[in-house]
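worker-03 picked up job from queue 'complexes'. Input manifest follows; two sequence lines, order preserved.
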Amino acid sequence: MCKQFDHNKFEPQIVEKSKKVIAQTVKSNVKTETFTITLPPPNVTGSLHLGHAFTSVIQDMLLRYKRQHGYVTLGQPGLDHAGIATQIIVANQLQDQGINWQELGRDEFIDRVWKWKEQSGGTILYQLVRLGMSIDLDRVRFTMDDDASNAVLYAFTTLYKDGLIYRAKKIVNWDPILKTAISDIEVSNKTQPGKMWYIKYPIGTCDFITIATTRPETVFGDQALAVHPDDERYKHLIGKKARIPLTDKSIPIIADDYCDREKGSGVFKVTPAHDFADFEIGQRHNLHCLSIMDEAGRMNDEVPEEFRGLPGIEARKKLIKVLLEKGLLERTEDIVHSVPYNNRSGAIIEPMVTNQWFLDTKVLAEAAIKAVETGRIRFVPEQWANTYFEWLRNIQPWCLSRQILWGHQIPVWHAENGKMFCAMTEAEAKQQAKKYFDVDEKSLPKLTRDPDVLDTWFSSALWPFVTLGWPRDQTEMRKHYPTDVLVTGFDIIFFWVARMVMFGLYFAKEVPFKVVYINPLVRDEHGQKMSKSKGNVIDPLHLMDKYGTDALRLTLATLAVPGRDVNIGESHVEIGRNFVTKMWNASKFLEMKGYIFDREFKTYRENLIQPLNKWIVRKLIEFKRAAQSALDEHRFDLYAQSIHKFLKDVFCDTYIEAIKLCDDEETRKTACSVFLEYLKVAHPVIPFVTEYLWEKLTNGTEQMLLISPWTNNINDYELKPDLVDHYISVAGEVRSLKGLIGCKEKLDLLVKSGENDAFVSANEHWIRPLARVNSVELVEAFPARGIRFFVAGQEFFVKYPHEVSRSLFDKKLSALTQDMSKLTAKIENESYKKAKPEEWQNDVDLLAVKKAELQKMEAVNWCNA
RNA sequence: GGUCGUAUAGCUCAGAGGUAGAGCACUACGUUGACAUCGUAGGGGUCACAGGUUCGAUCCCUGUUGCGACCACCA
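worker-03 finished. Artifact:
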């Protein structure tokens, strides 16, 4: 047997072997109950990063756990077409090839995207499988495949018919680089240094009013100046006119409560076409909405000639220069303010007034809020429900349309007279038009399909039920919907989670999932966000190559502490790898001892004679309970911890050390079957090494570990600590003493004869190796030379011919007296005695034991020679 | 401005109303038949600060401070 688990060799073999079994358990398993997770579909452009790996492993632990227990288990895989992200990538590729994508035309461009998708789109799926994701790749769905596309059309037309989708000319967040609208949650604000310019607007012939702005180039779009109605400084100007610098266009000075007297100069320029707040003020005061920029953010023909065609930032520079020359710039102030960006393109967002499609989300949001309030959906950790509520309670209409090419084209056809027909197909739209215009096919006016496509998240919001056949086929819906758990990051609670709930309730009439597990954000070792620019990105594939997939998975699980970001570095994965090796070595020991796998041997149930073997089975049961409840409560960190602890502290450090001299059949069988049962419990987190060892130790006679249920716990098993625990502590104390006196040779342990004599004689064969002593003898009295020690009041003795330093004795003594004084103080507290009489009595007993120990220690000063 | 999270060993982090835990790092010893990707033993903490509840608070409550995230505002 080789030195360690050769992950690079065995992982692919196990993946291959698991395939069929996984596909089978999607369709049928032992039970009729289902367990379903809709995996968040990664971008088709994506490749695996640690964040994916993290969510994926959490989901896979649940899938494997439930699959082992017999559930019909479905982890529904998929890919997202990721409209904007994908379009950017393909456009850049074309550009690199010297092709101007904008000249290709819609159909040709989309064709290119599909080609690219076929070529490299599946990468991430194979990476997920490498990560051990127990999913059936034959079930992979794509948000742009035919069924999904039809579902999107169906959903859109339904919402349109129900009056929830409308088209309107409104101010939206506009990306001048991509030349598309984006939704408000796609905008991220960055705090950065900037300037505040104080500009003088002439009033009459010799007066001025000063406004403050961070975006002077928008002055040409101004429709009014606003002041607070009660502002004594400006009250007299209300109703008068001011003139825009350079153009001399007259605009009214109006009063509006929105004005904050403290900010800037207290005068507020109103530019309805280029600012959200101004847009609303404009509506209130019936102001004209004048756009002064084109779709690329350049100044249009509404501005003085010298500024036309300039990008906003250039226009700003030029304007400031001119204002300065004309003496209209009062002053400039350096400030720090936040600027809206689109992270995808890097563009600074320009608010623009355009025609867009909106979804009225108010009613949908109310239902979604209720679903969580009433507990039909539970957030883990709970506090994320706050984030969810806060957004939904202040929800704005969802801007659905994007002016890009890659995505689901809006199923609305426009007639030249402005009438719109929403239908799933062009033919249906024509039918509607014929009816509306009351004409036949030939004289039907020309219909043009709306060129916009839908926000990618529209199709994502339908994902949990689209992947189950909705709206075409209800068979799988009945079995798997609502799904059980959704695992995702907090950053997409708005983008995805809330919208799935809204659409799920609306279309499928039921919540899409029962639990939302919000997984922590993955950061680097020092708590820094991973980013390409910082160069601190860790590639999970590299970690898998180097340390093995199991090591990575175990590490991620260990770190999955709820409500806290996760810092991960290579050193963490090293620990995982070391643990896998430990497991490997434990199995090597069993092999060397001549383990016996015996199907009929039900160690967990009956017939064990040896206390030590009973003990390890008891420990196994305790461990399984802990592991199971950790998984049930989504405490993957505690689960991983229990996996680690049982193998290392209990199985290796105690049991294996103790049985080194045992050669009986009961022990060999027990050791083997406890280890095998342990493999089952550890399987969900470290599927590869456990599967490998399972097959090896069972000689391939059993079904895969992947579908081996954990053996039921026995409830009547005596789970209280017993004499075995006591003598394990005694052995530990002997080792500790030897360490403290720096003794290397083997000693003899003497036990004073008493009520446990029979137990000691019958069990010395394992106490001896565990304590690392030559012999364990029962004696009536201790000799003069040696070290006395106490465990739970019982007295022991180690023969030791040399002198022992006084300091060791003092150390033990002071630890004991310290314990005692603490205990005494506690016991003397009358209120404690009254409040918790049983606990109080326990402490009294404990103190008595310690007192006895102290007396004995003082009576025989064991350290003097 | 609002909301949420968080503060425990040198580092990364668990934890429970009643004697403070792990891993890494550190110190010493050790290649004895599972394991040097290791073992054995050890050192190391006023559990951020101030109040309150309690017989008892590191744990619960309130406040303060530090750190982080999100939302809003941003003339």
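worker-03 released lock.
DSSP finds 27 helices and 29 strands in chain A.
The longest strand of chain A covers residues 187-203.
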